[in-house]
Write a structure and sequence with these properties.
This protein has 8 helices and 13 strands. By secondary structure, it is α/β, with parallel strands linked by helices. This is Two component transcriptional regulator, winged helix family.
Length: 239
């Protein structure tokens, strides 16, 4: 998952990034709220870890904007040295999902982050299959079938496909896609994503007759849309 971190203290910021990185998460660290706000205007993330007393733009002010634009979809956790009852209550009043003290306890912090992510994105944590209409993903085998017919995908193609189908209807920015599929931040403009999306659309026959459309979003990235209201709903099967 891709997590943005707002933390003034470089030592605390590095510790949070290290703990999240050990869990396999991709991190976007920031020292001030203005820089993070600018990044969020052009990018997408799966979670925010905010400093309550941020510089230039506080975590609370940033959260109000995030909630106004994205609703409650993105989980938000505050990590702060200020653990006063007043600050904690104010954080929850502006839409925080959790609040922890600094310095973080690695094991507890990992558990709380994963609990929030599991609640927001259950298909990515607790299930071995993902059914989406004509499409079926086997997470354990990293295999895909379309209307019961197996489609052979490379590892990169599978990661790209499962990312889209786990985020139906959500705009995914190019740098988000690149970080999640290729495992590193996008530094320069590249046609790599576009060529892979074009190829994936053909391989999985992502067209109207199968109930989905994979569309570009101007100056952002891509979005997978479900076209049929009566299309088979996502079904989750436990291991």
């Amino acid at each position: 998952m891709r997590i943005a971190i707002l933390q003034r203290d470089p030592v605390q910021r590095a510790q949070i990034e290290r703990v999240l990185g050990q869990c396999g998460h991709a991190c976007m660290p920031f020292s001030d709220g203005i820089s993070l706000a600018k990044a969020l205007a052009a990018s997408t993330v799966d979670m925010l870890v905010l400093d309550w007393q941020g510089t230039r733009l506080s975590g609370a002010e940033l959260l109000k904007t995030v909630r106004a634009i994205n609703g409650n979809q993105i989980p938000v956790l505050f990590a702060s040295e200020d653990t006063s009852d007043d600050s904690v209550l104010r954080a929850f009043s502006v839409g925080a999902d959790d609040y922890v003290s600094l310095p973080v306890c690695p094991s507890v912090f990992r558990a709380r982050v994963n609990a929030l992510l599991r609640r927001a994105f259950p298909d990515r944590f607790d299930n071995v299959t993902l059914d989406a209409g004509a499409y079926r993903f086997d997470m354990r085998r990293q295999a895909v079938t379309v209307r019961g017919k197996s489609v052979e995908l490379s590892g990169t193609q599978y990661r790209l496909a499962s990312l889209f189908f786990a985020n139906v209807g959500r705009v995914l920015s190019r740098d988000h896609i690149y970080a999640m599929v290729w495992g590193r931040e996008l530094q320069t403009l590249t046609r790599t994503i576009d060529s892979h999306v074009s190829r994936l659309r053909v391989l999985l026959d992502i067209e109207q007759h199968n109930g989905y459309r994979l569309q570009p979003v101007y100056k952002s990235g891509y979005r997978l849309l479900r076209l049929q209201d009566d299309a088979a709903p996502l079904q989750r099967e436990a291991a």
